[in-house]
Structures are given as structure tokens and as C-alpha cells.
Amino acid sequence: MAILKQPAHCVKKRRMEIFLKTKAWFIFCICGFLYLPATPSLSAVIVYDQVTTVGTPVYLEVLTKGRIFADGGRLVEFYLDDKSVGKNLTGGDGHGYRKYTPDRAGIIKVSARSAGESGSGLLLAMKKNEKAVLIEIEGGFKDAFVSQIAASANRRTVDKLFKEYRVIYLSRYSRFIGIQRSKDWLREAEFPDAPMLDWRGPQVLTVLKARGIHLYAIIGSAGIIGESAEHIERRYTFEQTQKGQTVKDWEEIIELLQKSAPKKPAKHKGKYKPSQKE
């Protein structure tokens, strides 16, 4: 049985039709995307959270974005607790910086405005004698939740942490999904506000230590606590690890932190009796 073959010119014509249709569809998609109305997710001013100690300067950082790529050369005005602290131009990569030295401890709201768009973040200024507990939100929260009851219990435990320590959130995926989405998840889960830093390896801890932060403990995935071994002594995870301590729940973490905390000096009983030298 003979195999019928199409003439060469027919094959070329068919290939050309497929190519033109594919090219037209690609151009249509690109044009349609470019003509979409602007939304906060396509064009935005992003403010990155920062952590430092009182009296230690830090650079407030923003990123101005267009619909797809960074949009550099824009004038940005910085605000601390809604009070303007100056204006700066963003560079060609869209990043802009403003140096600031906090003179008091606490959480300060940082916001930035440019061309009718705005964004906000947090600046945590710590006292040098305060202890910081770092929590990776993926390995510390999401992976540990198995039910709403567990989530509720974890929130209560985290509230205890906030009363004793300064909490700093870490995120492995914020550079991919956007740090605002990670913050929205924490807000929906009713966790307390705290600065969130993008985890880019142990250099994040090196920077914090250089700013005088007392890195007291870290809670997260086995991978992150392994990378933190040279910087933080108390390392806890819900996974199996040889470079930290595996725990069953958040209550165990609280107990371990309390056991490792230095004992407070005993209070004097009875009335104070001055010595003869006084």
C-alpha cells in the first residue's frame, strides 16, 4: 500500500500558517496584558522591614515597581509613624534608601509614597539587652498546623513569646510569592505584628549581629536551623535534625526557653537592714 505524501509546497504552507497563528496569539496576549488596568499587584511601592538596635543606624529600603519590572528613577517620600523624614530617588534597579538612626525602642511604622502609590513596612528598634527569637513562618507555622485547634494553640503560645522576647519572622518564599502575601497570611491567622525578613542564608544573621541584635533562639525548618548553627545556640524544629532540637509542639518550645533562661536573682525577704557601712 503506497503512502501518500503531501507536496512540499503544501507542507511549507501549512507550517507557515501554524507559525503565523502562534505568533498572532503571542502578540495578542502581550498586548492584552499591557493594556490591563493598573492594579496594586502590578504597580506598587514595596517597603522592606528592618531590625536594628537603638542608636545603630539602618537604611530604610523601598522598591518601586512597574507593571512587570522595577521602575527606577522615581522620587519617594519616606514616613515614620506618618511623619515625613525626607525624600530620595530610586536607582535604576528600582531600589531606594534612607538612612535612619532610631533613638527609642519599639516598632515603628515605615511608609513610602511615590506618584500616588504607597506601601508600608515595620522597623523594629531593640534595646541591646533584649532577646530576639526568630521564627520561620513556613517551617515554624504553616508546616506545623494540622487543624484549627492546633492553630489556635500556636497563637496563644506565640503570644507568650511576644511578652518575653522580641519576635522576628523569617520567610524563605517571600521573594517568589511577595512578602505582602506572607504578611497577609499571618494577619488572617491572627498572629501579632512583627518585622518579616527575607531569608537569604546565614548572612541575614550576620547583619543582625553586626547591628547588636541578641539572637537568642530560632524556630523553623531543619534546613534553616542547620544554616544557623554557627550564629544561634538555641535551635528548634518540628522536623528530624542533627543540628538542633526536634520538638513535638510549641508548648515544649516555651518550656525549653524558660529552662535555658538565666535565673532571676532572689528577692530579699523581710525588711531591709542597712549594713554598718551605710
Description:
The protein has 278 residues and is α/β, with parallel strands linked by helices. It folds into 2 domains: 44-126, Immunoglobulin-like (Sandwich); 131-260, HAD superfamily/HAD-like (Rossmann fold). It contains 8 helices and 14 strands. The strands form 3 sheets. The protein has a 6-stranded parallel β-sheet with strand order 11-10-9-12-13-14, with helices on both faces. A 5-stranded mixed β-sheet has the order 2-8-7-4-5, with no helix packed on it. Strand 4 (75-80) and strand 5 (83-89) form a beta hairpin. The longest helix has 27 residues, at 8-34. The radius of gyration is 27 Å and the shape is globular.
Features:
14 strands, 8 helices, five-stranded mixed sheet, Rossmann fold, Immunoglobulin-like, disordered N terminus, 31% helix, alpha/beta, 278 residues
